[in-house]
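Protein 1 of 2
SEQ + STRUCT:
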Amino acid sequence: MRLLNASGCLDALAAPGVARQLDAYVTKTITPLPREGNAPPRIAETAHGMLNAIGLANPGRERFVSHTLPRLTELLDIPIWVSVGGFSADDYAETCAGLDRDAVAVIELNLSCPNVDEAADGAAEIVAACRAVTAIPLYAKLSAAHPDVAAVATAVADAGADGLSLINTLRGSALDPRTLQPVLARTTGGLSGPSLKPIALATVHACYAATHLPIVGMGGVTTGQDALELVACGARDVALGTILFSDPDAPSRVRAELADASARVGVAGPDEAHAVAHDPERTPLRERSVTA
């Protein structure tokens, strides 16, 4: 099992020491043209996590390829995953076609921003367009907001996706208690943090059952136990998100906690617990071995 960061939750150029604790680094989402993002305020804390409405702020693909990616390659001695976004299948495909296979280990297709049609056919169209122009492995990042995310997962698998990233943030809002007005300038933003964990577990479980594709599980991971539960639902790898803002040592801590969490259920490590939630006969609880 590898530990990654969730796209947008870590700037490796600003915090390379944190990035080097990971097994792979995922960039912010890159779009065809530069984007300044949304007007502030665009981040807000809530009692249940964090809201962000950054708006895919990024330097654009030309600047990313010519400047940012070479700097990341020089700075980091770990695989680099590039998150790609856009507003049409052609946008995605053109960016994917311009990425160097020697510099990019995986392309994560951000199919879960509000500007992308998340119907199964739309997501599959984007994946198919990208598959036609690159041999770099493609992971489709999907939203749990879709009423049948397993159907979307199946569609992108059929279109050529090599893996899935689950889940992205969910739309939420917060009000200032003094004025009863939205805290964010755009009213709504993406909710991340501990409240997403039950949704992430359900989504990973459903999409693994539907596709058996490799999955990067994310959403509310703050401890090694959280990571182990995502693995048990079908994730091969786990990404850390909001926790990185408050705990820059989270990758090392979670990795150590994973060993303890695995030992508590009687497995040698997280890989031995992979997809165990799908098969009661494989449940490796130490109590079972004691009472048998």
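Protein 2 of 2
SEQ + STRUCT:
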Amino acid sequence: MSHPSLNYPFAGRRVHRMGYGAMQLAGPNVFGPPKDRAAAVAVLREAVASGVDHIDTSDFYGPHVTNQIIREALHPYADDLLIVTKVGAVRGDDGAWLAAQAPEDLRRAVHDNLRNLGLDVLDVVNLRVMGNIHEPGEGSIAPQVETLAELQRQGLVRHVGLSNVTSAQVAEAQRITQVVCVQNQYNLVQRADDALVDELAAKGIAYVPFFPLGGFTPIQSEALSALAQRLQSTPMQLALSWLLHRSPNILLIPGTSSVAHLRENMQAAQLVLSDEVLAQLNAIGGSDAHRAA
């Protein structure tokens, strides 16, 4: 049997590996307000009450909406709550996701996050590189990282992370400032980052998969469903547990706008998977990967 550690050092503290991603607290397509703001507030409060001490957000969720809901629900923040945000994009009037990578864009985004979250300093700011939307593309990110490093020197940002990046881009950024996390797309059936996960683990850098359950197109796998039924869990709980077992530096931020679903996600941390089950899950990554969205 394999039971992973449920804590990991991140941004100068130890956090629970099961965190919470706030993206789904905004309206449809992460744009505009939610239809039930009180329910969104309740989910955040339940997450913290359940032991979540790592919340992932961005001021381009909504835009502004998600951070304002976080502030309403949780401010003044507990000392042990780590809020991670990201910069590098803005939303068009039609909800489009637009790159915003110029120095003035990044500075404005940091100040927007500070204002809407009600903070004087941001714990972690991830540079969201646009690349090929959900897949990284090579190219220098030095100017953007240098801008965040300058904001770090000014005392507005404590730690810098990266999102949607390659190994070469991580190395480039590390020559400018310490990188505390990488947030890329990765899940049971989307495994392009296998080598990067291991590389970062060796360096003590957290890896935070976005779309850990497949994102806008949830993971579909007959083999996963059959295994989950046998283990009396849900397929999504099993997919989250696989990530916790995959590597100790993986921190999870599954999102939901439902308290019941949040509780279900949190229970994934309690699953203990046998070597046989892990082998079967690893095989799904090979056989089903071509079907992933």
